[in-house]
Design a protein that fits this description.
201 residues, OB fold (Dihydrolipoamide Acetyltransferase, E2P), Helicase, Ruva Protein, domain 3, five-stranded mixed barrel, 44% helix, 19% strand
C-alpha cells in the first residue's frame, strides 16, 4: 500500500493531481480541501494517500493532512458511500466542519453536497458518530503551508470543469460561479467561494 508521496507537483486539474516522484508520475484524485493548500505547479509537495483497488482500476487518492485521510477512510466504511461521495463530502466541508455537522446531526447540511440524499446523510451521521472523537485528535491538520495560486485567464473555466467533476449540474455551476465572479481570483479560490455559496443556498 502506498501511504505517502513526496515529490514535485506536476499537474493540478481538480479533482486530478499528478506528482512527479523521482521521475515517476503518480496520478491521484483529491478533494478540494486538499487543493486549497497545494503549492504552485512545479513546487515540492507532500501528500498522504489511500489506494482503492477495483476490478477495472487501481485509483490513488491524495490528502493534504492525516485528518482528511482518516475521514475519507471512515466515510468509505459507511454503507452506500463510495470514494466519489467521500471526496464530495471532503470538498464541501473541512474535517472540522464535518465533525460539527455530525455532532449537530445536521442532515440538511450534508444533503446539499451532490450525490448525497437524505437517507445517505442520515447513515453517514449515525455511522460516523463513534469516529468523531478519533478524528478530533487529528483536526485541524495541514501538512504544508498553503500557497497562493496565480490566477490564469482560464480560471473560471477550470473551476467550471472542477465543479462538474464534483457532481454539480451545469446550470447550478453557472449560478454558483456568479458568487465568485471577481477579476484576479485563482481557480481554487473561485471553487472555494462557489462551494461556500452552495452550502449556504
Amino acid at each position: 500500500m502506498i501511504g505517502f508521496l513526496k515529490g514535485r507537483l506536476a499537474v493540478k486539474q481538480p479533482p486530478m493531481l499528478l506528482v512527479d516522484v523521482g521521475g515517476v508520475g503518480y496520478e491521484l484524485e483529491a478533494p478540494m480541501s486538499t487543493f486549497y493548500g497545494l503549492p504552485a505547479t512545479g513546487e515540492p509537495v507532500s501528500l498522504f494517500t489511500h489506494l482503492v483497488v477495483r476490478e477495472d482500476a487501481h485509483i490513488l487518492y491524495g490528502f493534504g493532512s492525516e485528518g482528511e485521510r482518516r475521514l475519507f477512510r471512515g466515510l468509505l466504511k459507511v454503507s452506500g458511500v463510495g470514494p466519489k461521495i467521500a471526496l464530495g463530502i471532503l470538498s464541501g466541508a473541512s474535517v472540522e466542519d464535518f465533525l460539527r455537522i455530525v455532532e449537530a446531526e445536521d442532515v440538511a447540511m450534508l444533503t446539499r453536497i451532490p450525490g448525497i440524499g437524505r437517507k445517505t446523510a442520515e447513515r453517514v451521521i449515525i455511522e460516523m458518530r463513534d469516529s468523531v472523537q478519533k478524528l478530533k485528535q487529528t483536526a485541524p491538520g495541514g501538512t504544508y503551508t498553503a500557497a497562493a495560486l496565480g490566477a490564469a485567464p482560464s480560471a473560471q473555466s477550470e473551476a467550471f470543469s472542477a465543479l462538474i467533476a464534483l457532481g454539480y449540474k451545469p446550470p447550478e455551476v453557472a449560478r454558483l460561479l456568479k458568487s465568485a465572479d471577481e477579476p484576479g481570483l485563482s481557480t481554487t479560490e473561485i471553487i472555494r467561494r462557489a462551494l461556500k455559496s452552495a452550502v449556504k443556498s
